[in-house]
Design a protein that fits this description.
- The strands form three sheets. A four-stranded mixed beta sheet has the order 1-4-5-8, with helices on one face. A four-stranded antiparallel beta sheet has the order 2-3-7-6, with no helix packed on it.
- About 50% of the residues lie in helices and about 15% in strands.
- The model has no long low-confidence stretch (mean pLDDT about 95).
- With about 375 residues, it is of the alpha+beta class.
Amino acid sequence: MLDTSSRSLFEGEHDAFRDTVRRVVATLDTDRHEREGIVEREAWLRAGEAGMLCPTVPEEYGGLGLDFRFNAIVSEEASYAGSAVGWSLQSDIVADYILAYGSEEQKKKWLPKMVSGEAITAIAMTEPGAGSDLQGMKTIARKSGNGWKLSGSKTYITNGQAADLVIVCARTTEDGGARGISLFLVETGDEGFTRGRNLDKIGLHGNDTSELFFDEVPLPGDRLLGAENGGFAMLMNQLPQERLSIAVQCQAAAQRAFDLAVEFTKDRKAFGKSVFDFQNTRFTLADLKARLQVGWAHLDWAIQRHLAGELTPAEASAAKLFHSELQFAACDTSLQLHGGAGYMNEYPIARLWRDARVTRIYGGTSEIMKELIARSI
């Protein structure tokens, strides 16, 4: 269980909320999700009933009107439990796009369902030939009467199999570069919208990740999200919270890996004493504990900055870089301290290690994070 007693970021109401989140997370059948490659809708509905989805959504749209600390609690607890459920994508990313840029009609139609768990959402940026470089996307929406015709494909889309609504990034001009990108709302059942296979990944087996295809999908004018040709600026404005959200998940998973290593090495015997009693083990864990201590302090600082509206894109990139690298180091070190057992899927560290590999890639690779940080120097 995560120890939050020393964190001044949270207050009594947050502790009560965390207890609720822990109870709901404990009901998740992670083994089933790993086997089936998707999280059942009932899990989303339970989270919605508990107030865990999109807690920052204002009450007028069915939410609780809380701040990002509540989102962080959900992400921490789900990640610490080793679950790949895609709640944070809906709460930390998609909801904010609709809140910030959606029309009143779009907000009223989708936000209450997202809060309750009745609607599952995704955002489609990445393409087979355009990942971290969003300016290279080829998916295009051309004017057609009072609406649009959307054509192209996306890949590596989290929640792609289950999503009822997908925010799709597309070109609305033939020009290259950042200009002429717009965002559209694509719904399940739209003619010409199809899903490809549920992609076979190294880790995060419990979360569906898909290819999406758009074959001249007819979209009425009210499916445009925000301003035409204003999509790139919208994406850039929202990326800091997305990267902070990833940092939150990474830190919690790193802590879980450390806790598992401590538990295992104290229990396992070798050469007549516990593995923990060897100096190498204790020094390795001591080093990791120091890095985790710094990580929690930095994470809480970043969240406070974000709550005050002061977290810069470079700071968010640094948080994503630091915590994703820490997560993999913690998981790899913990697996090593498990010895052969760590390579067995029956031990939780094996899943944590597999799942950790992608966090240095999605949301912008570590290399891209370094480039963004360097630009601010």
